[in-house]
Protein 1
Amino acid sequence: MFSPETGARPLADGASSTASEIGEVLVSEQDLQRRVRELGQAISRDYEGRRLLLVGVLKGAVFFLSDLMRYIDIPVEVDFMAVASYGSATDSSGVVRILKDLDIAIEGRDVLIVEDIVDSGLTLQYLLRNLGSRNPASLEVCALLTKPERRKVELPTRYIGFEVPNQFVIGYGLDHGERYRNLPYVAVLQR
Ligand code: 5GP
């Protein structure tokens, strides 16, 4: 709970028992909010007069997307996809399975994929191919984080929040075993 007297924000319940797993903070809450506002303003300018549809990739992008949407001041709709990537716990293989498809048909729509993090790029490559084959008017990517050192395929990512080093990160939607999504900042997972 937020304390109005001290302004202190204790760790959320989900994080408190293993707080030692939360390592160095890479992106603070203030920097996240400032950058998300800038991205929302840029998207509003770039898509003025068009029918923008944000496609959020579950679950990690939900937190970023809901903040981002509040900084977009043109008409905008939202839909979600859930995908599972085959591979080890830390490496995606590029073989992706759709767990939940879009509800909305995207033919002729201006589609912006909203992702939490681009790591190898293989998941995004699959999404770009899959959604691209549905004939949208345009298809672009907005990713909160990117790990350029890990990239296996180069992809056009029009909007990027922050570059992070080659470390496993948690918070602001990003999980470790489904935990830590509720942290208001991005930190390194300390193993
Ligand atoms: P890619 O296909 O680009 O290798 O993997 C993308 C997905 O892997 C992301 O959408 C995210 O779900 C997961 N991922 C990649 N790096 C990290 C990380 O550092 N932390 C967390 N929590 N998930 C990551």
Protein 2
Amino acid sequence: MKLTGIELRRVEIPLVSPFRTSFGTQHTRELGLLRVRTEQTDGYGELVTMAAPVYSAEYTDGALAALRDHLIPLLAQAAAKTRGGRTGLDPWAVAPALAPIKGHRMAKAALETAVLDAWLRERSLSMAEWLGATRDKVPAGVSVGIMDSVPQLLDAVGGYLDEGYLRIKLKIEPGWDVAPVRAVRERFGDDVLLQVDANTAYTLADAPLLARLDPFDLLLIEQPLEEEDIRGHAELAKRIKTPVCLDESIVSARAAADAIALGACAVVNIKPGRVGGYLESRRIHDVCVANGVPVWCGGMLETGLGRAANVALAALPGFTLPGDTSASDRYYRTDITEPFVLKDGHLEVPREPGLGRTPIPELLDAVTGTKEWIAL
Ligand code: OSB
Ligand code: MG
């Protein structure tokens, strides 16, 4: 496959309602979109960074700079070396080419995904087929933000359950934890699949408080402590009954293997952006399956493009828990691709060539802030 150029866009899409987590409130989604051009086709990759480095160290403007100034030049060099060769660049060559740059996993993921999309399209192969997806649809969960009041939360959760969502995740932080969980259990019963996500808002000293969640039979508690506090999570896991799931801490297959070996997590959230792409996501899936650790697919408020790839990933056999794979209208009134819709609480796994969705030019242009073209 021969690359001829790469387009970088910064897009800004309004959210249907503000989304509040322990690290702040979002009103719009400000992410990046990459298009790689090959001699035969285009490939797209979503850059899932947020506008500010509050979930992880990456952020959209920084990631776009890393792509422009460091990652794309390295990929161009690797592509030049394959010129004259028979096969050219393939998706497996991207991560090794970018390895000299530390971190910047979301930026690397966006680039690798765009190359992968083009490579799959050139072969008329779907992401699901290529990954080895074993299901035609995946159960949809929804992440519910922190609200101003418990009645407001109950309205939101009730609305999602009426729509058919099969699992509810409540964002929590100190001061918004036991009471909202209790209220949701009291109103909607013990059969609702329920879990919480703290986005690193607690410390090990909060173990007695977090143990008060034990009676509510939660599926898991996601990332209660700091990203780097693996030992703390292992200790916390001994002090509470709710299974500990890691999100922010799991930046690679190695990190997953280490966290599991140290007893820091019983469940893993796989987010392709956070770990550098779908190839590494697949490896994490394999590590977790080998260790009997259930995984589920996290989200970063993706557009239909990233959502399509996530849904394909979530159709792998180790994804035994519903993910944050909600319908497009959970976040966006108008998506930039054909939207994902809920059918009996599930999303259909795309089977079209490539990621399975393509940005619709007019819709993409309407949300594009800046755009640049890098010829290769
Ligand atoms: O921690 O899972 C998270 C959104 C942005 C950043 C981090 C997280 C989230 C979510 C929502 O919980 C995931 C989604 O619905 O896409
Ligand atoms: Mg999380």
Protein 3
Amino acid sequence: MTQVTPIEQVLDGHVPEGRAVKIRGWIYRSRSQGKLNFVVVRDSTGILQCAVKKGVVKDDHFEDASKALLESAVIVEGTVKKDSRAPGGFELQASHFHVLHFSEVFPISKDQSTEFLLDVRHLWLRSRELTAAMKVKAVVLEAIREYCKKEGYIETTPPILSSSAAEGGSTLFEVPYFGKKAFLSQSAQLHLEALIFSLEKVYAITPSFRAEKSRTPKHLAEYWHFEGEAAHCSHEEIMAFEEKLVAFVCHEVARQCQKELAVLGRNPQDLEKISAPFEKLAYQDAVKRLQKKGFKFKEGDDFGADEEAALTEGLDQPVFVTHFPSSMKPFYMLENPDGTVNNHDLIAPGGGEIIGGSEREVDLQRIEKKLKKAGEKLENYAWYLDLRRFGSVQHSGFGLGVERLVKWVAGLEHIRDATAFPRVMNRAYP
Ligand code: 4AD
Ligand code: MG
């Protein structure tokens, strides 16, 4: 018997009682009752209790089971038995217990500090919560790609090293580049804009970097950025695409991640309920709403976590805040005669801003004027300005923080748990 059975199949009841199986994993928990060892084994799909009995397994197997520490790598063969006392309702009655590797004393036990757990992140990744979060993230990424494909968006791979800034200079990571300097990308937007003139509807999922000196539950220095850009697309049309995409991702996670959501304490029904269209609230009205709620908030102020929470209070689904004052936003957004821009932030209840997007300025003179006003040198944007010289068309796009979305969808408290090896201020280890 060589085939290995995923633990999930046993827990799902797919293995008949009495059937012999082989499982493979790591010791999650262990307790000894003299001649009987209960060893709970973890694999990527679940945990299963194995009863290892003296006299039933060979003596050296029994001794190994008695002395193997947590996180030892093991292979266990045995027969499946229903047992309501075992976690998951099934037990494996071992006939063979083979240790692949005897673990040293595992440094992680209960009640350890957040800092310590971040120091041993490479080991803490084995926790059930992080395992569940990583699986949700995989489904989120898969659903994004599936939706884009369905809508005719083509995946592209824009550069990470760049000489131009998309989102302003203050949060750029600078890197030496063959005697010159380059920057780690904050956004693929400008390069995606170049690609719409051949492919029309494009997207990219790339790492983005922000040297933001903010320690908050929603900021990473390195995050995965899903960005879309479409030619002949209005502001309303791009928002319609985004809201349907977000709803689709929520439904896929609810459908495919029942077990993971249970581990994370997130109710899948709340995700199933999400449906397009989402409410659209003009920035001016958002300001009024906040003032009514007692906030000392005035036009021109940006939303912090408290304002975001107040704006989504009591809501079941995200809300778009649109048409910010032009003075608050980057040069590339299309400005209206009233001084607002055709932009939007999508704010999720308990998740904060998960998307920022806009319709883009298409007129060469207007965009040059804005760049100059922002103190930028036009020659640094020469290639980008060319896009307004050769067949410029209406277009819109957006950027979605994948970890922000995962944090919200999975109900995580902190964005760092939406990524395996978080890069935050003062930490790039492990
Ligand atoms: O709002 P942002 O800065 O917009 C842009 O970068 C546009 N150029 C995108 C575009 O139109 N193509 O960033 C977009 C999203 C935010 O809404 C947020 O979800 C995420 O990126 N984000 C971060 N996620 C984690 N950590 C950070 N420090 C983030 N900064 C932005
Ligand atoms: Mg933003």
